[in-house]
Design a protein that fits this description.
The protein is an alpha+beta fold. It has a single domain, classed as Roll (Nuclear Transport Factor 2, Chain: A), CATH 3.10.450. It has a 6-stranded mixed β-sheet, covered by helices on one side. The longest helix has 29 residues. The chain is globular and about 55 Å long.
Length: 139
């Protein structure tokens, strides 16, 4: 029983460490602190943007492409969920004040990101016919 408790504690500790690293990552992203933002990535990490068909290989290349982005960016995390080696962050990124609702799926190895996939969606008007079935959420 004791070894099972120790194992569960180790898993919880590892997950708390990943959650803390994610919070630091997204705060650094919002502050345009590119050095801190990219500490979370393995040197050989991969970043995929399926909507544009792009793959970026390597932490240095990921950091460089983000640092060269000409738009002013702001990030607001809506929630972080995950366990083990797969974590998902839902957030709003604003490029020059225009919001994009974004999902980042991060796969971890040894507490660092090895693969990230990001999906971006623009806001759209709610359908009037649905109004009696829905409630408004914070945008």
């Amino acid at each position: 029983m004791r070894s099972q408790d120790d194992g569960e504690r180790q898993v919880r500790a590892a997950e708390e460490k990943i959650r803390a690293a994610l919070l630091e990552h997204w705060a650094a992203s919002d502050a345009n602190d590119f050095e801190t933002e990219h500490r979370i990535y393995h040197d050989d990490a991969i970043l995929d943007y399926p909507q544009s068909g792009e793959r970026i290989r390597g932490r240095v290349n990921i950091q460089t492409t983000r640092a060269l982005e000409p738009s002013k960016k702001r990030f607001k995390v809506r929630r972080i969920v995950g366990s083990g080696n797969v974590w998902v962050t839902e957030y709003v990124i604003r490029y020059n004040k225009k919001p994009f609702y974004t999902v980042s799926i991060m796969e971890f190895r040894d507490g660092m990101v090895t693969h990230e996939t990001q999906y971006f969606g623009e806001p759209f008007e709610a359908s009037a016919w649905r109004s009696r079935f829905v409630e408004q959420i914070e945008m």
